Amino acid sequence: MTRSRASARRWVGALSLAIIATSLLGGDARASERRFAIVIGANEGEAGEEPLRYAEKDAERFAQAAVELGGVPVENLVLLRGADAATVERVLRSVGERLRLERTGNDRSSLFLYYSGHADSVALHLGRSRLSFKRLKQAVEDVGADVSIFIVDACKSGGLTRIKGAKQVKPFEISAEDTMDSSGLAIITSSAASEDAQESDRLRGSFFTHHLVNGLSGAADTSKDARVSLSEAYDYAYRETLRDTSRTAVVQHPTYAFRISGQNEYIMARLDASERLGRLRLADAGRYVLIADGDGDGDADVGGRIVELGAEGTTDVMLTPGDYLVRRRGEHAIFESNVRLGSSEMVTVSRSDMREVPYGATVRKGQSDLPATAWRVGITGELGSPLIDGASAMGFLAPSVQLDLEPLTLQLRARWGQLTTTNEDLTLIHDIWGVDLTALKLIDVADVLGIGIGVRVGVDVHHQGFDGTATAADRSYVAPRVAPVARVEYVPTANVAAWVDCGADIYALEVLDGGGSGKSEAPVVGFCSLGIGMYLP
User: Fold this and answer.
1) Burial of 331 (C-beta count, 10 Å sphere; 0-12/13-18/19+)
2) N or C: which terminus of the chain has fewer CB atoms within 10 Å of its end residue's CB?
3) Distances (CA, A) of 504 to 379, 442, 456, 516
């Protein structure tokens, strides 16, 4: 188990213990502003609703951000996974009772209420129970917190990606008329009235919560004051959710209604709040993907997520300590750097620290944040053993085009070659024109080196012409061939590759004997080729 994965699991375990220990929400107030968080994730909805994959995981991620960056003491956090409506109402009452018992004249209090799961136009779907928005809104008001932040990531079912929500009824919406009558209440929803809130297998969570948590972790700090305000968090989540979902079947527009009286900016997160986290400084603007464990294989589990964010300038991101692969997507290239981040440590990554990654390698790794294909053009010189006894070795020149996919690499070539042989009376000039298709499974064993095996199938047109004192008629014929192939590929730069292929072509020929009748033969011709090519941007 890696250090990063162990750290993430210890954190979740600590949350679970805290939930058990604080079921009555006991604990002492430690600051003039006391913050509480009730975080609810529900993968299961009502009968007939497709279970969600990431709602409860999204809740864990928001809970972690609330504790480590949002100023919520762990004893003031309740994380509910798969809870029913009665449990949610009971917890809300317990928070309200605690606030009333512990309130002093100078105290201010805040409540974060987060929900990820199924919903329809009137209620949350908590397993087989329902909690109406009207009842929930009243329960939140009854808590009596000075500021309440209500975040809902839920909507309908169906769509290109896994859709959050359920029945095809009037979409869930909280309008300004419903919310603005309560001073100190802010409501953020993950989508507009007629839209779906979507989960992403690529991000292993919902688009909205992924970007909201990234924003709280520092990506939304446009003022560069190490603070993330409510408006900054919303603006960032809105922009990034809109950007990502614009590539899906349903464009998603988060909505809001704010009325926080008494202060201009409500601070949702402080980037200097946690001594446990490390600070990764991204020195250059761009699109970044941060992959835990630094291996680039897409199996990250630090915080249970891959971090994908947009940086408009120098951006600090607070992360769980561990090893990370930092990937930046340029207009025509991809750059990577491996970093190790410790607690309370700041590591800066700039363009000069990053290596340019070959396009073919990025495709073959199967990372979904990368291009799905890479095209390469090249030229190959090939030398083969004689096809005809007594003839010279065969030389070929072959232009090629290659397509890299995740499972396979495909290369299409056209080739021309010539061999000659001479006896006392005749000189045979044997021209060969052919096409072939090679399918390879390439494995990148290093940043610049790949090896693979595959098969090549092709067909050649052979033309034999004769010169000399004797007379012989020219003749032409077609010969299919198939060959096992092994490749070693070297990629010194991101755009240029060189490779060596070796194998043995097995031909299907019909050979004429002296009497003019034919017989089938399958001669084997060994070959090696050297190629050089360039990836197309």
Assistant:
1) exposed
2) N
3) 20, 19, 10, 29
The helix (H) or strand (E) run that includes residue 364 is helix 359-364
- SS3 label, residue 497: strand
What pLDDT shows up at residue 171? Answer: 37
Which positions of the chain have pLDDT values less than 50?
A: 1-31, 156-183, 295-304, 368, 514-517
Instruction: Compute φ and ψ for 412, nearest 5 degrees.
Output: -110, 130
pLDDT in tens, 269-290: 999 888 899 999 999 998 898 9
CA distance 254 to 144: 27
The CATH number assigned to the domain holding 314 equals 2.60.40
3-state secondary structure of 30: coil
* Domain annotation covers residue 16: no
Q: What is the domain extent for residue 60? A: 31-268
Nearest Cα residue to 124 out of 197, 179, 26? 197
Angle at 155 between CA 151 and CA 160, to 5 degrees: 125
Q: What dihedral angle (degrees, nearest 10) is formed by the CA atoms of 40, 44, 47, 49?
A: 100
Q: Which of 330, 329, 408 is nearest to 373 (CA)?
A: 408
- In this structure, are 158 and 121 located in the same domain? yes
Q: How far is CA 209 from CA 140, 303, 451, in A?
A: 21, 13, 40
- Residues 33 and 72 sit within 8 Å (Cβ to Cβ): no
> Residue 252's pLDDT is what?
73
pLDDT in tens, 139-165: 988 999 988 998 989 864 222 223 344
159 found inside a domain: yes
Report the side by side order of strands in the sheet with 322-329: 307-311, 286-292, 322-329, 334-341, 355-357
DSSP output for 99-144: HHHH--TT-EEEEEEEEESEE-SSEEEETTEEEEHHHHHHHHHHH-
pLDDT at 493: 80
With CA atoms as reference, report the closest residue to 448 among 488, 420, 398. 488
Residue that has been written with the tokens 């704010």 in this structure: 258
In-domain check, residue 5? no
Q: For the chain, what's the residue count?
A: 537
Yes or no: say if 341 and 246 are a contact pair by the CB < 8 Å rule.
no
**Does residue 6 lie within any of the structural domains?**
no
